[in-house]
């Protein structure tokens, strides 16, 4: 770190020039990246994904999202009396797709396509598989349907699970840029409080350079790999929070060293050796937790892991090069007016740290109890997709679904089970599937020479482990009457595939992340016990987060009041993996910030309690401020219109607050105080392997306990 700092200071003009070029190129790339992102949710090798490929090969269409086109005739008329005219309306509207698989009353003759009052009918339409997140032909379906029915005076509408999950039409949500600006405004307020000078602007500059440079790298990544559309939100908002947090730590330490009488250049070097080292360890930890997703055989999650990994790595690179160059050049001039001084530790946090050390057993017990209450709901966690009730609550797609429901057609129509069988056995498969409990009806929806298709409409949407049982029952029923291969695709099959593809391997991902993090932290803290405790507390903190969002979102205790969204009934299958990967690394940031300072103070004073008090007093305000900055970024993320993005934003925001308050400001210092000298033990043999200085177990130096008489403490 010292060599890097001196190199940057000596060649700061080159550093400025390099990052200026990347900043400008990144500004250009940021406008191009959204068009290059994809929505590939494929699961190679899984049964449902294989069946989906067969469907695309035979019909050129996909079950990714089934659009339900609806026509309602005026009062006094019936669907049956206008059957031919309605069929033409559906056919004309379906022409917006290059290829379409259209299943309706005319093609099947099944009265199940007609509502109870005989005034409403619908058609199932499946178009080609989308290749990007940009609107496709389906965006023209509703206008085309309205135009086709215009002369007849019929009422029309279009709905689907995808259209409903996109959010209420009255709230399209802010753009990525608007969300970033909202997060930046909240961060600026916190930075002004922390620095009380124009230094508050430096972390924002660092964040801007980091975000745009990351967009530039992701643009390059899209040239040879598919990258998920979610990555753009993560870069903008998590990149904002991470870059500012890292800058906050380094700048605060620089101010502290200047307040201690060091000249500007020396202060920069010391800040890099101490805070810079912690930033490097933190960034690598976050990157590791994300890149570990490459072991999951899901392209969508792999791309998020690789794309997300770039966020902390770029932020670390900018903070460790551009920031010291800026501090050396303009730091003292922008540190004005100097209302707040860093020469002494925060009095409030010093008093808090002394209280925790003095009442360490009570502090540990209270923190454990709170975490236990938060964790309790996690045992009711369901993984799948959000239920229909938690999606849009108004707008055209919602109104169209309400029309179907009013006519006795249940919401399961939005998630049809697509069964693939030999063409000559399609009718037998439809008859068998129709008899399964939980199925509204089943019809033959395609008779290509090589592949027959049966559309099975469940009563309820097949989105989680409970409602998804009907998919397995349909499979069993069809296999009982069909000779040959049976394939099943659709939303329900996708949920089942994710369980086998992701969650069967998820424990290995967790173990890999924990192991690499443990080794990295042993080098950082020169300790065996502290890394074990850090990993275990991180897992405990994550369990509390999942318990909280299960209670809030899945059970609906607050989602309606805060977001006007009903209980989701389940968490979308990809969310827990992403939430775990990001939060494990981001939460570890604060562990590294606090414990690295405690380790530094222990090496100086030789007493654990003193190290806890000084370390927490020096980092408590920074960690709290950093958590608030990330919270504002995640609050901006939660303002997106889609329910899944809202769930992710609230989970990350709540996770950061839980970790920075209950865990890092209460439980961590209490446990470090309880473990005493054992916190710092690293045997010589292990230290040699890790290539760090050993830390033998030794008696602690006698210092005064908080508010008590001095007393020696032995190992």
From TrEMBL:
<keyword id="KW-1133">Transmembrane helix</keyword>
<feature type="transmembrane region" description="Helical">
    <location>
        <begin position="506"/>
        <end position="522"/>
    </location>
</feature>
<protein>
    <submittedName>
        <fullName>MMPL family transporter</fullName>
    </submittedName>
</protein>
<dbReference type="Pfam" id="PF03176">
    <property type="entry name" value="MMPL"/>
</dbReference>
<dbReference type="InterPro" id="IPR050545">
    <property type="entry name" value="Mycobact_MmpL"/>
</dbReference>
<feature type="domain" description="SSD">
    <location>
        <begin position="199"/>
        <end position="329"/>
    </location>
</feature>
<feature type="transmembrane region" description="Helical">
    <location>
        <begin position="662"/>
        <end position="681"/>
    </location>
</feature>
<feature type="transmembrane region" description="Helical">
    <location>
        <begin position="361"/>
        <end position="381"/>
    </location>
</feature>
<feature type="transmembrane region" description="Helical">
    <location>
        <begin position="181"/>
        <end position="199"/>
    </location>
</feature>
<feature type="transmembrane region" description="Helical">
    <location>
        <begin position="278"/>
        <end position="300"/>
    </location>
</feature>
<feature type="transmembrane region" description="Helical">
    <location>
        <begin position="230"/>
        <end position="251"/>
    </location>
</feature>
<feature type="transmembrane region" description="Helical">
    <location>
        <begin position="622"/>
        <end position="642"/>
    </location>
</feature>
<feature type="transmembrane region" description="Helical">
    <location>
        <begin position="204"/>
        <end position="224"/>
    </location>
</feature>
<keyword id="KW-1003">Cell membrane</keyword>
<feature type="transmembrane region" description="Helical">
    <location>
        <begin position="534"/>
        <end position="553"/>
    </location>
</feature>
<dbReference type="InterPro" id="IPR000731">
    <property type="entry name" value="SSD"/>
</dbReference>
<feature type="transmembrane region" description="Helical">
    <location>
        <begin position="573"/>
        <end position="593"/>
    </location>
</feature>
<dbReference type="InterPro" id="IPR004869">
    <property type="entry name" value="MMPL_dom"/>
</dbReference>
<feature type="transmembrane region" description="Helical">
    <location>
        <begin position="306"/>
        <end position="330"/>
    </location>
</feature>
<keyword id="KW-0472">Membrane</keyword>
<keyword id="KW-0812">Transmembrane</keyword>
